[in-house]
Amino acid sequence: xxxxxxxxxxxxxxxxxxxxxxxxxxxxxxxxxxxxxxxxxxxxxxxxxxxxxxxxxxxxxxxxxxxxxxxxxxxxxxxxxxxxxxxxxxxxxxxxxxxxxxxxxxxxxxxxxxxxxxxxxxxxxxxxxxxxxxxxxxxxxxxxxxxxxxxxxxxxxxxxxxxxxxxxxxxxxxxxxxxxxxxxxxxxxxxxxxxxxxxxxxxxxxxxxxxxxxxxxxxxxxxxxxxxxxxxxxxxxxxxxxxxxxxxxxxxxxxxxxxxxxxxxxxxxxxxxxxxxxxxxxxxxxxxxxxxxxxxxxxxxxxxxxxxxxxxxxxxxxxxxxxxxxxxxxxxxxxxxxxxxxxxxxxxxxxxxxxxxxxxxxxxxxxxxxxxxxxxxxxxxxxxxxxx
Length: 388
Hints:
Elements: E1 2-8, H1 14-27, E2 40-45, H2 61-73, E3 77-82, H3 91-99, H4 101-107, E4 111-114, E5 120-124, E6 133-137, H5 138-142, E7 145-155, E8 159-161, H6 175-182, H7 186-200, E9 204-214, E10 222-232, H8 235-245, H9 254-261, E11 272-276, H10 279-282, H11 293-297, H12 300-309, E12 312-316, H13 326-330, E13 336-337, E14 343-344, H14 354-358, E15 364-368, H15 370-387
């Protein structure tokens, strides 16, 4: 039986958050059951976009800092890293700064890692349902322990995003766009996310529900104070409890249903022991859900056509290229060929965009399709409106 800790935490004050984090781990058997002294522990927060913490789009920096301090106190070497949802130049660096996660993690003693800038490794996943091969951030594979430090939010396609879906950020750059292209329907997306999860396999999931997001998540929903922290060594179980709290039956969330069927965790509340607070005392009956109706009603052939129109591809500017070969040496898929001038073999490219991030001369740009350019303009306006 999986064990999930559920605790109240009224605000993001340093002492309150650290107390809740420590107590959560105690209820799960103690931090020593999760990490050992000297281990490299990667804490993977939700860093969806460059937004301030009060928007509730990202994991709150106070939670990140508290987790880092607790892990360092246990003798671990702590890394904090992610790759957000955009494909803009230096997007991860900017997101770390604006969200407050980067400064908070560094102050707490962690090494902050930009998954996009530090390269990726191509991994084979023969058991995968959708993703048989994909690029994964090098730090994920180099870490001894991975911890998913998620934000409790709604999601326009998956309905809910938490500890399991949070691993999508382990795929750097445009690899996330490729995931959505290969899995345009909600059930397919769930399968693809679980393909990634099955490789990453976080040892612990912690969900920041102190201030959650309801409504039109994961980026433009409404912050909702719940005052809750959910944690488990079984990320699927943690998500199942979180979904129960906000009124989603576990079986309505494809990623939880499929995870249980694939043996990746426990999604049934009957097989989960909740310690700490009573789930029934923490339920939020009027939590505003997201709707994925447009994804469900879109015929699969049309979804594939639309997915094909959403393209972002790396492109080498031959005039700016100094032919140093760093892009070629850094490409996990071996898609950059030639001895100068270099060229990109599109069929092999997995669109991790490591070449774009790592080129010291800015010679690898990104070619966006018209639909992507339109989407970026619309989201930029939404973001500006939200700030106003």
